[in-house]
Design a protein that fits this description.
mainly alpha; 98 residues; globular; single chain; 61% helix
Length: 98
């Protein structure tokens, strides 16, 4: 009779995680312009992060959401989770305006 509390061998193995793939922008020139614009606008203390991200979005709106998020992280100094929230909110806002 085997004890019921023996562990399964597959559960003991450490999990191997793959490195996250870094998305590449379709238009690297506009991506770079957006990041530079974000860094420039972030220096102004009167400008909010949503204002910066909205102005950056105009340059990278045709990119995948991961690329836009990456631009927001680099240019507007947002966290990864915050940048995805901004992408979602700005896209929703732009669809309402269109």
């Amino acid at each position: 009779m085997t004890p019921s509390n023996t562990k399964n061998e597959t559960l003991d193995k450490p999990k191997v995680t793959e490195k996250a793939k870094v998305p590449t922008p379709k238009n690297s020139v506009n991506y770079k312009k957006a990041v530079d614009l974000g860094k420039k606008l972030s220096k102004n203390p009167d400008t909010t992060k949503i204002d910066v991200a909205t102005k950056m979005y105009d340059l990278v709106k045709d990119e995948a959401r991961e690329v836009i998020s990456m631009a927001f992280i680099e240019g507007a100094n947002l966290t990864p989770k915050g940048s995805m929230t901004y992408v979602y909110n700005i896209r929703r806002k732009m669809k309402k305006l269109a």
